[in-house]
């Protein structure tokens, strides 16, 4: 895991592998921690599917995403006075690893 200890205010995250601030092949999951919602990423569909069908909490699913990720970042998005959200972003180092992570994560819903 690569952690970013910079304590500056930022309103977006840039990918540690390609520098993109938008969607890129390394973006595993973008999470709005304030509202407990996923906002994008490779695991977006699988995350929502498991959240609605499994007996598992949002935070437990995030732990699984964390274990699959190669890098992690967080930032605050100010959406007007007194209104801000904390976002967490999980990245993997390659598109191939993103594909693998997606299949591993999706398979987690099939319990014996
Ligand atoms: Zn990238």
Describe the structure.
The protein has helices at residues 44-53, 58-68, 95-107; strands at residues 27-32, 37-40, 71-78, 84-91. By secondary structure, the chain is of the alpha+beta class. It has one domain (27-107). Strands 2-1-4-3 form a four-stranded antiparallel β-sheet. The N and C termini lie far apart (30 Å). β1 (27-32) and β2 form a beta hairpin. Helices cover 30% and strands 23% of the residues.
> How many DSSP H or I helices?
3
The radius of gyration computed from the alpha-carbon positions, rounded to a whole number of angstroms, is 14 Å
Beta-strand share of residues: 15-25%
In total, the number of domains comes to: 1
Q: Regions with pLDDT < 50 over 5+ consecutive residues? A: none
Terminal Cα separation, in Å?
30 Å
* Helix and strand composition category: alpha+beta
What's the average pLDDT?
A: 88
Number of strands: 4
Helix content estimate: 25-40%
Which sequence of SSEs, written as H and E, runs from N to C?
Answer: EEHHEEH
The coarse overall form would be flat
Largest sheet: 4 strands, antiparallel
Strand order of the largest sheet: 2-1-4-3
Bound molecules: zinc ion
Key terms:
112 residues, 23% strand, 30% helix, 3 helices, flat, binds zinc ion, four-stranded antiparallel sheet, single chain, alpha+beta
Helices and strands in order, then pairings?
Elements: E1 27-32, E2 37-40, H1 44-53, H2 58-68, E3 71-78, E4 84-91, H3 95-107
The structure holds zinc ion.
Zinc ion binds near residues 17, 18, 20 and 24.
Q: Brief description of this entry?
A:
The protein is an alpha+beta fold and 112 residues long. Helices cover 30% and strands 23% of the residues.
